[in-house]
Design brief:
1093 residues, 8-stranded antiparallel β-sheet
Length: 1093
């Protein structure tokens, strides 16, 4: 137990603390395990998440959308990092997340520790967990957030220790690493971030470190912000107070809310607990890490429900996030071969009396003024919470230009807060002019704070708070450049298919517009369609024959196609015309290696490293070139440098292994192989990354060695068939047809589940396999997956059909053909046939039933829908999405009690922001009530309408602050009015109107069209016909930009139906369904009209 006692004497607080031994041992780091109660995940989705059918860009990863209520104790790998003050627990199987950072002195968790793994549908792939620090690159709640990543740990010569976690993102093939370090005598967790675009093309990315902290009534976000962006393209708020709400206090925030600091020029933020008088601070240079985000679910029911969905007994949490960009509204492009790195710090603080006004890596301070001064002289308290030991420091306190008080020499110990009393004559003057500087014994400034500075440290803040219109002109009104930039923005906001559509439109206006030609050429390169890419490059060259970007991309495309001479010429042209040096030189070095000109390759790579000395690919390439040239001594040194720069980069680790093997030192080679296997070789992906890289260098022997090691090291079901296909392709290139045939045959016996090729090199290998074995159904299927993911739909479908004709009967193949028929050919009848075949092959895949029910609904085949569910296994019927589809069917068939029964006794797990289950619950009750109302059973109708206002906890959707229950309130008023309960009826209608007006002022989303419509009907009932008419006219009028969504057509249909304009109403509902066949609200209205006719 830590004992603290402090006495203020002559302006300095003397603290007595029982501390760890001054003769601290070196930091400990070790690998172990941790057992955590876990709600198990069901099987991952075996179906590839093609961009055409999945709004999240996650291909080639699988979706993790099968959450269960099965709770078991699960043992996870853990890496522990501990010094005398802090103990960190890192989970490599969960994104390398810092699961726990424990303050050993205060005996408390620094962050929110979730003592159960309870998945919620929040991540890009679905499953996500709360707690600790989550690392997000190149996207938020990213693809590996609950998946294994590469990891290793090391003891450092200075006594510190480091754990490195990271991965090669399979979507972009970019690499990230986080090195977590504890140092002797320092109560601070260092987080060194490295982001690396190891590819030849620019790629979209962002970086956010997401730390969870307990959400309690006394919790306050301590952020140096005066303006914030509430995750909006149109709004800027003041902070902490906006519209009378202080958003720095968790207890005040009623809605799920994200806030991003705007133009903040301070390098700290954190959270503080006023009752406990402790908190946590984050420090990073704002030039490198400008992003400062607060997040809370809020204290209303729709936020608090997530406490139940994500934990058992650990309560709600908030998030404090640091980012490489200011907001999460869009991603940005990381140039090819770019390395970005910086260091962030996290440490606990305590005893500061209400937060902190400044923080540095060494310490945080707070300045506390007396609550009432009346202008009289008094004492201001300066509290200092250090993260490290500082000897003989000096504190200088000034009032403007005048010296006020000096303290020192004074020594600080980690986690021992010291307080200093500063006498001031005028408190109000002190609040404006107090100036604090803390220096170490050498005179170096450790911290400086001036009360007169803007809270965000930005004297040139020019952004104005308020709401502005987002004027989105139609495409037809934009210039070519403006339209192109709109396409770029669509890319950045993760709508790649829409971006491609816009780019094609640009070329219709200007067929030689170079920026678009390059964008489309990159798409074709990534699809391994090198011929199409070359044609686009040729069109760009016609307009500008000396454009370095055009020449560089030409080199990339030619190199991918194996046309090394043309590639080499293009890269040199790019350099001569002023293009980026390092990327082109790296490519030239690799071409030289592929042509066995190792000395030349080494010299080119050395030149590249002069421009980009931290580049892990260039270093790994160079080490391989030196090894192949026979210069083993320098190769060993270079490989070691590569690993030092990027300790878990698969290429660097593989080359350290191969060069050790080349020396003939079997012990060193075995050790290096073990390092590779432990860090990156625990799954096929790590071996494929290294094997494909060696193949691209023409080092087929090293590629073979790595891939063969995968076969030996991994369990047979874990060996990807791509490993064997790469080995086969290598063997053909080496002239060993017999070995190639054997490897290709082995590939056909390997596990086909979740094999989704994504590298252009994968497609090259698969095409080579099919050139030798054209009837290889597995290779056809895999190549089809690759092509469909890259929008080559017809070619993919042809390959899948050939695979089926070869006797490859696999549910995923038939599902893929169903997607092609449904989403590309707009042929739901054929799609239904394929999906039925898929279900026959895999009757337990619940996702197939959901899609087939959607198709049957689109076709109007109610009988087939009934048969589909009648023949489904019980386990399938138990899944959330299947229950929702059955509920909808039962409502449409007016079996309301059956529909509601389907919701009972089941805990639903909706997506973040998902409302569908509750909407269907409301729909069933409303339709049941309206049927009773039409039959004159008003009491029964009232009961159903009141039920529609409820938010049963097991549905997983909580009641928001302003729930927009206008439809249920309107009908409740009608039922009460029919029972002659006039006052109660008017009260219900007035509540509907009040709810709409309250929701208009909500920061998140505003009022739905349905809410406005039923509020207008309520106004009519209350006698406000003119106001109601204005609202209804607005709902039916064309939007200013002329673009009407399916939902707005549905709302217009409601208005016209209310006005007895039956033809217009039906037309609107049908148009809504044409635009969105799954807009069930419009279909329900059409069915209602059909029954009444």
């Amino acid at each position: 137990m830590v004992l603290r006692k402090s006495v203020i004497v002559l302006g300095v607080a003397i603290s007595f603390v029982v501390m760890p031994s001054a003769r601290a041992a070196k930091v400990r780091v070790w690998k172990g395990t941790i057992s955590i109660p876990t709600y198990l995940l069901g099987p991952e989705d075996p179906n590839p998440p093609f961009p055409l059918v999945n709004s999240h860009n996650i291909y080639p990863y699988t979706a993790l959308d099968d959450l269960t209520d099965r709770r078991e104790m699960v043992t996870y790998q853990a890496i522990y990092l501990e010094n005398e003050y802090l103990k960190a627990t890192i989970l490599p199987q969960m994104d390398g997340r810092v699961y726990s950072l424990y303050d050993k002195v205060a005996k408390r968790e620094v962050f929110y520790r979730n003592n159960v793994i309870k998945y919620g549908m929040v991540g890009l792939r679905g499953a996500w967990i709360s707690g600790g620090i989550e690392f997000n690159f190149p996207n938020g709640h990213t693809t590996d957030t609950v998946s294994p990543v590469d990891s290793r740990f090391q003891e450092n010569p200075d006594g510190s220790a480091t754990v490195i976690v990271g991965d090669m993102d399979q979507v972009s093939n970019m690499h990230w690493e986080v090195a977590l370090t504890l140092r002797t005598g320092v109560a601070r967790l260092e987080q060194h971030v490295t982001l690396f675009n190891s590819t030849p093309l620019e790629k979209l990315y962002w970086w956010w470190a997401n730390a969870a902290v307990p959400a309690t009534e006394d919790m306050q976000f301590i952020y140096p912000m005066r303006l914030v962006n509430p995750h909006s393209h149109t709004e800027i708020w003041t902070f902490p107070v906006w519209n009378g709400v202080d958003y720095s206090w968790y207890k005040n925030v009623r809605h799920p809310t994200s806030l991003f600091g705007v133009d903040v020029h301070r390098s700290f933020f954190g959270a503080y607990y006023h009752k406990a008088d402790n908190g946590v601070i984050h420090v990073a240079d704002y030039h490198e890490v400008p992003g400062k985000k607060t997040w809370t679910w809020g204290v209303a029911g729709d936020g608090l429900i997530w406490t139940h969905l994500l934990t058992d007994n650990d309560g709600p949490y908030n998030e404090i996030q640091s980012g490489h960009f200011e907001t999460q509204l869009s991603q940005e492009f990381l140039p090819p071969q770019r390395v970005e790195s910086w260091t962030e710090y996290w440490y606990p603080v305590q005893g500061l009396g209400g937060g902190f006004v400044e923080g540095t890596p060494q310490m945080a301070i707070n300045v506390v003024y007396p609550s009432a001064s009346g202008g009289r002289s008094s004492m201001v308290e300066l509290a200092v919470s250090p993260a490290e030991a500082i000897r003989n420091a000096k504190i200088e306190v000034r009032l403007g230009r005048n010296a006020l008080k000096d303290f020192g020499p004074v020594s600080f110990e980690p986690l021992v807060t010291k307080k200093f009393a500063i006498p001031v004559q005028d408190i109000e003057a002190a609040k404006k002019q107090l100036d604090v500087t803390i220096r170490d014994a050498s005179g170096k400034t450790l911290l400086h704070w001036f009360a007169g500075d803007p809270i965000d440290g930005n004297p040139n803040q020019s952004v104005k708070p308020g709401v502005r219109e987002r004027n989105r002109k139609p495409d037809s009104e934009l210039s070519v450049e403006e339209l192109f930039l709109r396409g770029v923005n669509e890319e950045k906001e993760e709508r790649p298919l829409e971006a491609s559509r816009i780019y094609e439109e640009v070329l219709k206006r200007d067929s030689g517009y170079i920026p678009v030609l390059l964008k489309l050429a990159e798409e074709q390169y990534l699809a391994a369609d090198f011929t199409s890419a070359e044609n686009l490059i040729a069109r760009a060259r016609e307009r500008d024959a000396k454009n370095p970007r055009v020449e560089y991309l030409a080199g990339v495309v030619y190199k991918g196609a194996g046309k090394f001479g043309l590639a080499r010429d293009a890269f040199w042209q790019s350099l001569r015309f002023g293009g980026a040096q390092a990327p082109a030189l790296i490519e030239l070095g690799e071409i030289a290696m592929a042509q066995k000109e190792y000395a030349k390759g080494a010299e080119l790579l050395r030149q590249a490293l002069r421009y980009d000395p931290d580049n892990g690919v260039a270093l790994s390439d160079l080490a391989a070139a030196l090894r192949l040239a026979g210069n083993l001594k320098e190769a060993i040194e270079t490989a070691a440098t590569a690993v030092k720069e990027m300790p878990i980069l698969p290429y660097a680790l593989a080359e350290q292994w191969q060069v050790a093997k080349a020396t003939g030192n079997s012990a060193a080679a075995q050790s290096a192989e073990e390092v590779f296997r432990n860090a990156a070789g625990f799954r096929s992906q790590g071996y494929l990354e290294a094997g494909a890289w060696y193949r691209s260098l023409g080092d087929l022997a090293a590629s073979d060695a790595v891939l063969e090691a995968a076969v030996k090291s991994l369990e047979a079901p874990e060996v990807s068939p791509l490993i064997y296909y790469y080995l086969a392709a290598n063997a053909w290139n080496e002239g060993n047809a017999q070995r190639a045939a054997a490897d290709a045959a082995e590939a056909t016996r390997a596990n086909v589940e979740a094999v989704f090729p994504n590298r252009p090199e994968d497609a090259v290998v698969l095409r080579e396999v099919l050139a030798h074995h054209p009837s290889d159904a597995h290779a056809q299927y895999f190549l089809g997956n690759f092509l469909f993911a890259h929008s080559h739909y017809a070619e993919a479908a042809d390959l899948w059909k050939r695979a089926a004709s070869e006797g490859f009967h696999y549910s995923v193949l038939y599902r893929n053909l169903g997607v092609y028929a449904w989403k590309v050919q707009n042929d739901p009848t054929t799609a239904a046939e394929y999906y039925a075949k898929a279900i026959k092959e895999s009757p337990g895949d619940f996702r197939l039933y959901v899609s087939l029910d959607e198709i049957y609904t689109q076709l109007g085949k109610t009988g087939e829908r009934e048969k589909l569910f009648a023949g489904a296994p019980e386990k399938v019927l138990d899944h959330d999405t299947v229950r929702a589809r059955r509920l909808l069917l039962n409502v449409e068939e007016r079996r309301y009690d059956q529909a509601l029964d389907a919701l009972k006794g089941h805990n639903f797990k909706p997506w973040e922001g998902g409302q569908i289950i509750h909407q269907l619950f409301v729909l069933a009750n409303l339709e049941k009530g309206r049927e009773a109302f039409a039959g004159g059973n008003y009491k029964s109708a009232e009961a159903s309408f009141r039920a529609a206002l409820e938010y049963p906890a097991h549905l997983g959707v909580g009641k928001p602050e302003h729930p927009q229950d206008e439809e249920a309130l309107y009908w409740l008023g009608r039922a009460l009015d029919a029972q002659d309960e006039k006052a109660a009826a008017r009260e219900a209608w007035q509540q509907a109107v009040d709810e709409m007006h309250a929701a208009e002022n909500e920061p998140e989303g505003g009022v739905t069209g349905s809410a406005r419509f039923y509020a207008a009907l309520a106004l009519e009932r209350l006698g406000h016909a003119d106001e109601a008419t204005r609202m209804l006219d607005a709902l039916v009028s064309e939007p200013p930009n002329g673009h009407r969504s399916a939902y707005s057509y549905y709302i217009a249909g409601l208005v016209e139906d209310h006005r007895r304009q039956n033809g217009k109403a039906a037309a609107y509902f049908r148009r809504a369904l044409e635009l969105d066949p799954e807009l069930w609200q419009a279909r329900v209205e059409l069915q209602r009209r059909a029954r009444s006719e």
